[in-house]
Specification:
This protein is of the alpha+beta class and about 220 residues long. The chain is about 40% helix and about 15% strand. It has one domain: Class II aldolase/adducin N-terminal domain (L-fuculose-1-phosphate Aldolase, 3-Layer(aba) Sandwich), CATH 3.40.225. The protein has seven helices and eight strands; from the N terminus they run αββββαβααβαββαα. The protein has an eight-stranded mixed β-sheet, with helices on both faces. The longest helix has 24 residues. The chain binds zinc ion (ZN). Zinc ion (ZN) binds next to loops.
Length: about 220
Amino acid sequence: MGETALREAICEVGRRLWTKGFTAATDGNISVRLSSGTFLSTPSGISKGFMKPEDLVLVDADGDKIAGTGNVTSEFRTHLAAYEERPDIGAVVHAHPPKAVAASLVGVSLAEPLLPEVVLAIGGIPTVPYATPASAEGGKAIRGIIRRCDAVIIAKHGTLTVGRDVFAAYLTLEKVEHAAETVLWAKLMGTPEQLSASEIEALHRIQRTYFPEARLFQPE
Ligand SMILES: [Zn+2]
C-alpha cells in the first residue's frame, strides 16, 4: 500500500473508532509503519472521526516529527515500544473502549477462555498495570507482553491493538470491545462459564486455518 492509501486507511479507521464510540473527543491514536522505517501517525488534539489525510504527521524512529502541521500524538512512545518489540507488525491502534476499560476499573479479567472467537483470533486478552498516559511508562507497560499477543488492555486507560496493517489492528480492537460487552452482559445475568480444555483444544486445531498470523495470548 502506498503512502496516500495508508493515509486514507488511517482516516477510515479513525472514523470507525469514533462512530463505534471507541474514543471520545480527541482521544485515541493510530499509526502505521512505512517501509522506510518511519511512521505515519495521527496528530494530537484532533477527533479521530474527522481527520483528513493531510492531517497525519510523519514521524521518525525516535518519535520526532519529520513532516506535518500538527504535533506527534503524546502517546506515540507507546506505539514505538510496540513496533520495537514486534518487527512483524505494520500498525498500532490505541483507543479507550468503555466496556474493556470498565472491566479493568473493577479488576475483571478478560484473559480467561470464554468465547471461541477470542480464543481463535486473540487467545486471551491480558490487562497490564496502569501507567500514566503520554508518559514513558506507557511504553514500559506493554513491552514484553506485546510480544506474546496482539491486544492488551492498559488498566484504567485503554487498549493497544497491533496488526499486519491498520485494518487488522482495528478489527482486533472491535473483537476486544465486543468480548468485553458480552462478558458484561453475562455477568449481569449470572456467572460466565469458561470453555472446557477439550473445547479449547478443538479451537486450537482449526486456529491456523482461520487466523494464521494471530499471536495468541496464553496465560503463563
Ligand atoms: Zn489513551
